[in-house]
TrEMBL record:
<feature type="domain" description="MotA/TolQ/ExbB proton channel">
    <location>
        <begin position="135"/>
        <end position="238"/>
    </location>
</feature>
<keyword id="KW-1133">Transmembrane helix</keyword>
<keyword id="KW-0966">Cell projection</keyword>
<keyword id="KW-0997">Cell inner membrane</keyword>
<dbReference type="Pfam" id="PF01618">
    <property type="entry name" value="MotA_ExbB"/>
</dbReference>
<dbReference type="GO" id="GO:0006935">
    <property type="term" value="P:chemotaxis"/>
</dbReference>
<feature type="transmembrane region" description="Helical">
    <location>
        <begin position="34"/>
        <end position="53"/>
    </location>
</feature>
<dbReference type="InterPro" id="IPR022522">
    <property type="entry name" value="Flagellar_motor_stator_MotA"/>
</dbReference>
<dbReference type="InterPro" id="IPR000540">
    <property type="entry name" value="Flag_MotA_CS"/>
</dbReference>
<feature type="transmembrane region" description="Helical">
    <location>
        <begin position="171"/>
        <end position="189"/>
    </location>
</feature>
<feature type="transmembrane region" description="Helical">
    <location>
        <begin position="201"/>
        <end position="227"/>
    </location>
</feature>
<dbReference type="GO" id="GO:0071978">
    <property type="term" value="P:bacterial-type flagellum-dependent swarming motility"/>
</dbReference>
<comment type="similarity">
    <text>Belongs to the MotA family.</text>
</comment>
<feature type="transmembrane region" description="Helical">
    <location>
        <begin position="6"/>
        <end position="27"/>
    </location>
</feature>
<dbReference type="InterPro" id="IPR046786">
    <property type="entry name" value="MotA_N"/>
</dbReference>
<dbReference type="InterPro" id="IPR047055">
    <property type="entry name" value="MotA-like"/>
</dbReference>
<keyword id="KW-0472">Membrane</keyword>
Length: 286
C-alpha cells in the first residue's frame, strides 16, 4: 500500500509541477523511449543474473506491495510458542516433543499458532534444532555456531533479489542516456526540417534521460531498500529463535530463555515483559 502511495506522490509532484510551470504533459509521452529503456534494462538484467537469481527476484516482487507481517503480535506468538515447547521439555523431557517435531502440522502445540505454522522455513528451522538438541551429541556452542551459519546463509539468499533490483535501478539512467542519444542521432539526420520541428525532436530525445533517472531513483531503486528492510526483519525472527533455544540449552528456565529472545527484538515491535507474560498465559489456556 505504501509503495503505491509513494508512487502516486512522485508522479503527482513531478508531473504536476511540470504542468503548473506551463509544460505540456503530452510531450513527455514517448513510448519508443520507454521501449528502449525498459527493453535494454530487462535484457541486461537477464544477462547479468542466473536462473536462481531471476526466480528469487520474481518471487520477491509481490511481497513489496504487502505490509510487513513482522509485527508485535507475530513476535508474541513466536515467543509464546517457544515457551510452551521449552516448558514441555523441562517438565516431561526431550522425548515428549518428538511427535511435535516430526509432524508439526498435526501437532496440537504448533497448530495453536497458524501464522507461524504457515511459515514453512521458520518451522523447519525450529524443529531441526529441537531435533539436534534432543540428540544429545552436540553442546550449546556447536549448535549456536551452526545456527549462525544457517542464518547467515538465509541472509545471503535473501539479499540476492535486493541486489538484483539495485543493479537494475543503477542501469536505468544509462539506458535513458542511450535512448536520448538515439533521439539526437535521429534529429541530426533530419536537419533539413524547420527549426520548430527540430526543437521538438530534441525535446523528445531529452525525455529519455529524464525517464531513465526518474524510473531509477523514483520507482526501481527504492524497492531494493524495501527488500533489505524486509530481509532484516526476517533475520531478526531467526535470531530470536536462536537466542531463546541457546539460552535453554545453557540451563535457563523457559521464562528466562524467552526473555532473552524478547530483548533482541526491535524496539518498535518488542512487547513489554508484562504484556508477553499475559499473552503466554492466554496462549497456554487455549
Amino acid at each position: 500500500m505504501f509503495v503505491i502511495i509513494g508512487y502516486v506522490v512522485i508522479l503527482g509532484t513531478i508531473f504536476g509541477g511540470y504542468a503548473l510551470g506551463g509544460g505540456h504533459l503530452g510531450g513527455l509521452w514517448q513510448p519508443l523511449e520507454l521501449l528502449m529503456i525498459f527493453g535494454g534494462a530487462l535484457g541486461a538484467f537477464v544477462v547479468g543474473n542466473d536462473i536462481k537469481a531471476l526466480k528469487a527476484t520474481g518471487k520477491s516482487l509481490p511481497t513489496l506491495f504487502k505490509g510487513s507481517k513482522y509485527n508485535k503480535a507475530l513476535y508474541m506468538d513466536l515467543l509464546a510458542m517457544l515457551f510452551e515447547i521449552l516448558a514441555k521439555i523441562r517438565k516431561d523431557g526431550m522425548m515428549s516433543i518428538e511427535n511435535d517435531v516430526e509432524n508439526p502440522e498435526a501437532s496440537p502445540l504448533f497448530s495453536k499458532y497458524p501464522k507461524l505454522l504457515h511459515d514453512h522455513h521458520l518451522i523447519e528451522f525450529i524443529t531441526d534444532y529441537l531435533r539436534l538438541m534432543g540428540s544429545g551429541n552436540m553442546d550449546a556452542f556447536q549448535i549456536e555456531t551452526l545456527m549462525e551459519s544457517e542464518i547467515e546463509t538465509h541472509h545471503m539468499e535473501g539479499h540476492v533479489p535486493a541486489h538484483c533490483i539495485a543493479k537494475l535501478g543503477d542501469a536505468l539512467p544509462a539506458f535513458g542516456i542511450v535512448a536520448a542519444v538515439m533521439g539526437v542521432v535521429h534529429t541530426m539526420g533530419s536537419l533539413d526540417k524547420p527549426p520548430p520541428e527540430l526543437g521538438e525532436m530534441i525535446g523528445h530525445a531529452l525525455v529519455g534521460t529524464f525517464l531513465g533517472i526518474l524510473l531509477a531513483y523514483g520507482f526501481v531503486g527504492p524497492l531494493s531498500g524495501l527488500l533489505e528492510q524486509k530481509l532484516e526483519e526476517s533475520t531478526k525472527m531467526y535470531n530470536a529463535v536462536k537466542v531463546t533455544l541457546i539460552s535453554s540449552l545453557n540451563g535457563y528456565a523457559p521464562a528466562i530463555a524467552v526473555e532473552f529472545g524478547r530483548k533482541i527484538l526491535y524496539s518498535t515491535e518488542r512487547p513489554g515483559f508484562a504484556e508477553l507474560e499475559a499473552h503466554i498465559k492466554q496462549a497456554k489456556g487455549k
